[in-house]
Structure formats: C-alpha cells, structure tokens
Amino acid sequence: MIDRIRLSLLKISVFVVLAFSTATASAQLSASLPYKDNAIDSLSANSSYIDEQAFTASKAAKLSSIFDDVNENSLQKKVSVSLNNSRDRRQLMDYLKQLEIGDNNAAGNEARNKTLFKFANLFARLKLYPLAMKCFFKTLQKDKKLKDNEEAAAVDSLEIDTSQNTDLPINTKDDSLAYVQSLQVRSDKSKRTTYENISGTFNDGKQAVAYALLFHVKQPSPGKKKVHVLAYTGHTYITLIKYNTDSTYVSCSFGFYPKKDHLFSATPWFPSTSSQFKNDAGHKWDEIIGKFISRKSFEKILKLTKEYNDVDYHLSYNNCTDFSLQAAGVAGISISNTDGKWFMGHGNNPGVTGQSILQGGYGTTDKQPVTTLFKSLNTSVTEK
C-alpha cells in the first residue's frame, strides 16, 4: 500500500517538473522573438479599404474627349465639323455642360474658366455669337467658394434681370439653335436689310433675361494701322443678342453701308450718298469687343438704328465705324484713337479702330469693371 502511494507521488512530481520546464521553454522562445500585440494574419486581413480606393480612383478618372485638344486651330476645326452632325453636336453640348459643373476649388475654377474662355473665342470665330457670349458669361459667374475674386465682383455689376434665371444654362436648345445659326453664317456675303427686319428679329413674343452687344472690326490689313488697301477700307459692324427665359435666343449682326447713287458715291470726291443696312451675320472680322447690356441700353441701340435708317452715309463723319462706335457707346464700351486720315478726308475708320483694340485702347464708360468686356481676336491677327 505504501509502495503504491510512493509511486503515485513520484508520478505527480515528474508531471509537475515536466510542466514547469515546458512553460519556461515557451516563455524563453517568446522572449527571443519580436513582440507584436494583437497581430493579425495577413491572409485574413480585411481588404475592403484597398478595393474602395481602387474603385474611387477609377470612378473619378476624367474621361477623355476630342474637345480636350489644346491646339485652338485644331479644336476649331473639330468643333466646326461637329456642328454638322447631330450626335457630335450632342457630345459638344454635353462637354460644355460638364464645364458648367466644374470644380469649386481655386485651381479647378481657374482651369474651367480658361477652357470656357477658349470656347468663347472659338464660337466667336465660328460666328456663333450667342453661344460665345454664353461661355464668356460663365467665366464671370460667381464661384460659391471664391466670392471675393474679381470675376465675382464683375458678375454682380452686370445689368441683367436678376429676378429671372441668369445662369444662361447650356442645354439641348443650344444644339438645334447652334446648327441653324451655323447654316446662316456660311456665306460671308452681306445682303441688304432694313430697320424693320432688324427690330422684328427681337419681337419673338418671349420674355428676355439678358441682352448683349458685340462690336466687330474688319481691318483692311489685319494687325496693321492702314486706313485702306487700294480701294478696300474694311468694315465695322455690331451684333445684338436677346436671351430668353426659356433658354432660347435671337441675334442679329448688321452694319451701316453706303448705297451708291452713282459710280463715285462714297469716295473722296463724292463722300456723301444714300445709306442702307446689311445683314453681316457671315461677315469676317479681326477684332471683337463684347458686353452684356441692360434692356434700356438695348432699346436705345435699336432707337439709334432707326434714326440711322433715314440718315445719309458720309465717308468722313457718318460711316460704318461712326454708327458702330455710337452703338458701343450706348452699351458702355469706349474705344480710343479711332481717327485716321486719307486722301481728301479723315475720320473714324476700321483700320485705326482695330489697331486701337489690339493695343488695349478700350474700356467701359459705366461703373462696370473692364473684366466684363469680352475681347476676341481672329486667327488672321493672332498669327501676325
């Protein structure tokens, strides 16, 4: 019996010794390895964060477009071609609508405005003036996060109907209107029109939300202060635009011309003659100054047009540039140094006026900042 008890105690002692040795060895092994609290097996780690990052990056990636072309001449050709195809026009309008959304940070806002201004120039060169001024207007729109910048101050001073939607949004109506207008400006031949036709263009029975005027100059020799090249003296004309609350618009480009009573009418020998207006929708130009104007100014310009309907043309003091400068003055645009001399005469003329614009000789006569003026130069001038 005693032997059995001794045997049991011996077994227990051996078990305790072995257990203690194992625990000590385990502790030593742990101490010899780097310690990592709550370590997780990399194979069982949650990878949802990585997947979300990858998804977000691919989703935020900007889709490329044919209209991302940085070369203006190349882009102008692409835009011109796209106007003849309904699918391409929709893509163009979608692209412009995406620019409207833009980024709210300073860098995004600056990039957006540069692109919009580039398209404003392109549409002006394609003679799609309402769309050009729409794009320009959006460069002036107040950014919600950048209320203190110059563009915000400029848009606050625009004389437009603030009781209506003044965003001038780009939408599907621009698609059809741009196509119709692109057909109308294909011919650069100016045909006779009347004050009744001009004023009737704007009697569309729709409520206006904004008005704009563009002052166009075609120099005899682009980029040079020449009054004439042989018998060619250039031309100055204006465009009036009425934007409606339903996102439609109407416009009319026209200029004051001599109506020759005989072969030598409107020449240095016989400077005075009868007058007429012509539709200049397709007329070429070298320089443009544009501005959004009030309804009151718009109506005054139409009144001025009516007065010129019964006035004789005079080469020295009542020519196309005189009429256009008066209209620009009503709109709040001033252009200095427009007078030049020629054989047996002198006065305002396209050659000197265009050169003055090129040299920055323009401004505003009202309280609006100069940033509210849209200036565009045609490639014939910029390539000089």
UniProtKB/TrEMBL annotation:
Keywords: Signal
Secretion signal, residue range per the UniProt entry: 1-27
Domain of life per record: Bacteria
Protein name as annotated: DUF4105 domain-containing protein
Source organism phylogeny: Bacteria, Pseudomonadati, Bacteroidota, Sphingobacteriia, Sphingobacteriales
